[in-house]
Amino acid sequence: MSSMRQDAWTKEEDLLLAEIVLQHIREGSTQLQAFDEVGKRLNRTAAACGFRWNSFVRKQYKSGIELAKKQRKEMKIQETMDAGHSMKEDSSFNEKTSPTLSVDDVITFIHNIAQQAQLVERVSQETDILQDEISKLQNQLNQTQSDYDQLKIKYKELEDDYHSVLLVLEKARKLTVENK
């Protein structure tokens, strides 16, 4: 039994990993199967391949991944259309079989949309109410700040008057002590 490689990855190995993973994505296969395939080709574990993909290589192929997913989706659509054409061409095909969407499905869908619209309307109304409340609270805060500023001014004036009275009383006390 040969030991698995643990040396550094080369650019060629990264490229092979990316090509095989993208191919599996396009074909609708799993990434785990891609990691197994790459691991066998490079004499590395599937876990090492998965780690390398997730930690480094995947970040370099974001647009490639999106393209592969898009191609997979288009292939599925094409296969569905081809299957539909072959069913129509088949003489045993009965057009009265159940359609892809039933009337009940459509009704349920419309009902869900109506519920979502009501929910959006409720959220919108609540948002308006909360905006009004925020505005009122902001006004109260501004008024309270103004009142506080006025009280600070009055307090300062009273403090100054208090110190003036104390000075007058101190002078009066000294005069009385001197006259005795």
From TrEMBL:
Xref: SUPFAM superfamilies: Homeodomain-like (SSF46689)
Every copy of the Myb-like domain together lies at: 1-57
Q: PROSITE patterns recorded for this chain? A: HTH_MYB, MYB_LIKE
Which sequence ranges form a coiled-coil region, renumbered to this chain?
120-161
Which keywords, in A-to-Z order, does the entry hold?
A: Coiled coil
Q: Which domain of life is it from?
A: Bacteria
What InterPro entries has UniProt attached to this entry?
Answer: Homeodomain-like_sf, Myb_dom, RsfA-like, SANT/Myb
Q: Which Pfam families match?
A: Myb_DNA-bind_6
Would you indicate the residue range of the signal peptide?
none
Residues covered by the HTH myb-type domain: 1-61
Q: What is the protein name given in its UniProt record?
A: Nuclease with TOPRIM domain
Source organism per UniProt: Oikeobacillus pervagus
Q: What does the record give as the organism's lineage? A: Bacteria, Bacillati, Bacillota, Bacilli, Bacillales
